[in-house]
Amino acid sequence: MSKISGSCLCGSIQYASKEEPLMTAVCHCENCQHQTGTAFSIIVGVPEDSLIFEKSETLKEYIDHGESGGAVRRNFCEKCGSPIFSLVESAPGISFIKAGTLDDKSWLQPSTNFWCDTAQPWVKLDDELANHGRNPS
Fold first, then answer.
1. What is the C-alpha separation between 10 and 134, in angstroms, rounded?
2. β 51-56/59-65 pair status
3. Domain limits at 93?
4. Model pLDDT for residues 48-82, shown as the tens digit of each residue
5. Is residue 108 within 8 Å of residue 44, measured between CB atoms?
6. Which residues contact 119 (CB under 8 A, 6 or more apart)?
7. In a domain, 136, yes or no
8. d(CA 135, CA 28)
9. Which segments within the chain are labelled E, that is strand?
10. pTM for the structure as a whole
């Protein structure tokens, strides 16, 4: 039985993970801001080999380079544009699912923030959450 599941907006892509999430986070990098069209992206990391696609007829990939300089493979639905997951070169073996695509989001509790130096100034960062991925000076 699946630990988590989700889909794109139009339902052309449906996925599940066989394993529990490794982590949840809020990414404030500028590329995630562009991709989501808002101030950050909430992501759920799962082992890459645990992600199973029940439907993936319109899954497409766009490769950019993240704040770290490494490749970020952003996978999305070609039909409706929903971002589904990313594979990040600097975090091998982990699929970062876009939390907005989850069927059940009620359990989400991000445990960390990434790329806080590019967070929008009006975003209030929780001091209790670790802040990772500071932009290099």
1. 35
2. unpaired
3. 4-122
4. 999 999 988 899 999 999 777 889 999 999 999 99
5. yes
6. 28, 39, 40, 113, 125
7. no
8. 11
9. 4-7, 13-17, 23-27, 41-47, 51-56, 59-65, 71-77, 83-88, 94-98, 112-114, 130-132
10. 0.86
Q: Residue 43 is encoded by which pair of tokens?
A: 């992501």
Residue 129 located in a structural domain: no
Name which of 63, 75, 55 is nearest 6 in CA terms.
55
The mean per-residue pLDDT over the stretch 23-29 comes to: 93
In-domain check, residue 68: yes
Give the CATH number for residue 42: 2.170.150.70
Residue 66 is given by DSSP the state -
Q: Which amino acid is at 51?
A: L
Q: What is the pLDDT of residue 61?
A: 96
One-letter amino acid for residue 20 of the chain:
E
Give alpha helix (H) positions in 52-112. none
DSSP category for residue 93:
T
> Six-digit token pair at 5?
């599941």
Query: Which residue in 61, 26, 31 sits closest to 45, CA to CA?
Result: 26
- Count structural domains, the chain: 1
> Is 132 part of a structural domain of the chain?
no
